[in-house]
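Structure, all two chains, one model.
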Amino acid sequence: MINFHEVTFAYPSGRPVFVRFSCSSERGEAWAVVGASGCGKTTLLMMLAGLRRPTHGSITINDEVIDRPRPQTGLVLQDYGLLPWATIAQNVALGLRLRNYYGPDGRHAPIEHAVGPIDLRVNQWLKRLGIDTVRNQFPAQVSGGQRQRTAIARTLCLDPDLLLMDEPFSALDAPTREDLQNLTIELQREQNLTLLVVTHNIEDAVFIGQKILVLGQPPHTTPLIIENPMAGDRAYRSSSRFFEMCTRVRELLTPGITASH
Amino acid sequence: MRRRHVLFTSLIALIVWQIIAMLIQRDILPSPVQVAQSMVANFGELSQHFVASALRVIISIIIAIALAVPAGLAMGQMPKVNRIFSPLVYIVYPIPKIVFLPIILLFFGATDLSKVLTIVLILFFQILVPVRDDAASLRPELLNSVKSLGAGRRALFRFVYLPASLPAVLTSLRLSVGTAVAVLYITETTATLLGLGYYIYLNYSTLFDYAATYAGAVAMGVLGLVLYFLIDWLERKLCPWKFAN
């Protein structure tokens, strides 16, 4: 589904982050991209979202070259992605309203997509994500977890086939974090989404990513991908294999440091 | 609650005024009772002047918003536009625009247009600068996520920049409504026969009717206060999220 074809990306300062980087994924896979801040993981996400263009090479999703945001791609950012002046329900409805605003033109909204009654779908997703009770409140009035649920609901309202998330759990406390991780996996399976979560947190990456892309120090040339088939199972989180996997990822991220056990 | 406070404070001010007037006992400080009598006696005339002044200042506010908001948004979201116009704004912003009044009068004559133009000139910059800064300081996370939902430039303008600039517009209006009324007074003391400024000036300098002079001043104060409350009300209506919590 996603194909990075010899992608090169350099910042305006000239520092290269990706050099002839190639990688691909299949539909319905759950990916985690893990790395320290400044490693280029957000750049990777932004290129996939069509908000940044590679300097050379190309990225295709379903054989379509990405050079602008694609209507079927959902993006959820760490925080601040919600309109502070709109209620939770209005925020969830935003994507649908934008589609109505442009009409099905193929650029901003898919051609085959008829929006239909907005309220019905908004209500359905507010309920599914358990934020129905705060629908008339503003983002500043609800908890971080509820804000993140709002951002997810807003995206899933649009029937995406690809969900990109940038540090979606890092601002949350531990119970909320696990709760949202479970929900994310549940939704990913239910909607058959391709999921790509970018995070600096190793535990997040190991729980979410059936495939983990480890980004060390840039520039990146060949992808380092770890198969992690147990990802997403709730029992995995407390198993010894989970901790072994975390240790393995940690060692890959910080070569030279060996685990104490 | 708030309204009661305002009324209470006004009452205290009136009482203090009454006491001072009784102590001083001079023509140039009529008591509130005398001023109220004058207001009632000249109600028709006074309201005519009030309406003329209110129309001028409200039309000026509307024109200033209509010009400054799009300009501010354009400068705030397009760095190239900002680079060209920012130095100009920087130079013109601190100039007391009232000094242009004689020039505007020379060009546009003793018309309503020249009065409105003077006020617009002042309000324009007061609104432009905060709107520009607000639009420029919008978080990239917010813009990116709305773009990812399919928003192009037009939709960003409608769904993000415009609502984001509303509080800045209302705050700058609230801060500049006093200035607007003050400038209105100055513009109305010359080259017109209609407006509260004219009414105050005529009664003070020619008719020596001090009660009427004060009545005009009170009317002007009421005009400022009404505008201030109107902006307050608009802010509550249009930006409920600022008052949540």
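The longest helix of chain B spans residues 153-188.
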